[in-house]
Each structure stands twice: as C-alpha cells, then as structure tokens.
Write a structure and sequence with these properties.
Blueprint (H helix, E strand, L loop, with lengths): L4 E6 L8 H9 L8 E5 L2 H9 L4 E5 L1
Antiparallel strand pairs: 1-2, 1-3
Length: 61
C-alpha cells in the first residue's frame, strides 16, 4: 500500500469549539475524547491537523 501514516488522538473536547474546528476533527474521523485514528500523511490531512493542533496529539507511524 505504501505511503506515510500519522496517528492522531483527540485529547481535548470538541464541545464549545468553533464550528470549523469541530468539522476538521470530524473530517479526520475523531468523534470523542481519546479517539485515535490513523490517517494518510497528505497535505489535506496535515492542514486539518494544523488547524486543530491545540486539540490533538500527533505521532508519526
């Protein structure tokens, strides 16, 4: 399959956040605190991660 992956964990709640930030987290597949997903390391996903970086923990896989 190839391609780099990043593991993203939601460490802060989405409650009360700016709607655009909430949508970015949901676009990454994160629904609730402590959810962890592995996504492709693409510019699109990196942009979403950068926008809500204050809510996330990111690890290279």
């Amino acid at each position: 399959m190839g391609g780099k992956q990043i593991k993203v964990t939601l460490v802060r709640s989405l409650y009360g956040r700016v709607p655009g930030h909430r949508e970015c987290a949901q676009g990454l597949g994160l629904r609730r605190r402590h959810d962890t997903v592995t996504v492709a390391d693409t510019p699109e996903n990196r942009g979403m991660v950068a926008k809500v970086s204050y809510l996330l923990k990111v690890e290279e896989v």
